Amino acid sequence: MSSGKDARIKSLLTNREREVFELLVQDKTTKEIAAQLFVSEKTVRNHISNVMKKLNVKGRSQAVVELVRMGEIAI
């Protein structure tokens, strides 16, 4: 059986949500993230919105702070 810690860390964010937020913390714009991930800007905004709902926060910056605090992403 794999480590429970790894499963928990991966369970909050999908791989794509993690990619979006890792690019966000690099100061990329929604447009730049969309181009880099080959998706629409609306898709990027949807991923950000979904994460904000999961974390129960009101903005991108709050989401980033919470994800860093939880160890989900690094800056």
Element layout with pairings:
Elements: H1 4-12, H2 15-24, H3 30-37, H4 41-55, H5 60-69
Question: How would you describe this structure to a colleague?
Answer:
This protein is mainly alpha-helical and 75 residues long. Helix content is 69%, strand content 0%. It contains 5 helices and no strands. The protein has helices at 4-12, 15-24, 30-37, 41-55, 60-69. The relative contact order is 0.17. Mean pLDDT is 89; it is low at 1-5.
**Class per helix and strand makeup:** mainly alpha
What low-confidence regions span 5 or more consecutive residues with pLDDT below 50? 1-5
Helix proportion range: 55-70%
β-sheet strand percentage: under 5%
Number of strands: 0
Query: How would you characterize the largest beta sheet?
Result: none
User: Oligomerization state of this entry?
Assistant: single chain
Mean pLDDT: 89
The value of Rg in angstroms is 12 Å
